[in-house]
């Protein structure tokens, strides 16, 4: 693991300490879990946005399929 430092508010620190005590988890573990959850949530949003953008991609029949095929063969 890589060590890093962040600044948090007094209220965030107090809440983190309280949550760590009530769950029996370390503050570091809670922070890592929160970061993982945030990253996964954003990855899911990005995937969904990409899919939504792709839905309309083929709605017209003027696409040059040969050009697409050639670009895939490179």
UniProtKB/TrEMBL annotation:
<dbReference type="InterPro" id="IPR010985">
    <property type="entry name" value="Ribbon_hlx_hlx"/>
</dbReference>
<dbReference type="InterPro" id="IPR002145">
    <property type="entry name" value="CopG"/>
</dbReference>
<protein>
    <submittedName>
        <fullName>Transcriptional regulator, CopG family protein</fullName>
    </submittedName>
</protein>
<dbReference type="Pfam" id="PF01402">
    <property type="entry name" value="RHH_1"/>
</dbReference>
<dbReference type="GO" id="GO:0006355">
    <property type="term" value="P:regulation of DNA-templated transcription"/>
</dbReference>
<feature type="domain" description="Ribbon-helix-helix protein CopG">
    <location>
        <begin position="3"/>
        <end position="40"/>
    </location>
</feature>
<dbReference type="InterPro" id="IPR013321">
    <property type="entry name" value="Arc_rbn_hlx_hlx"/>
</dbReference>
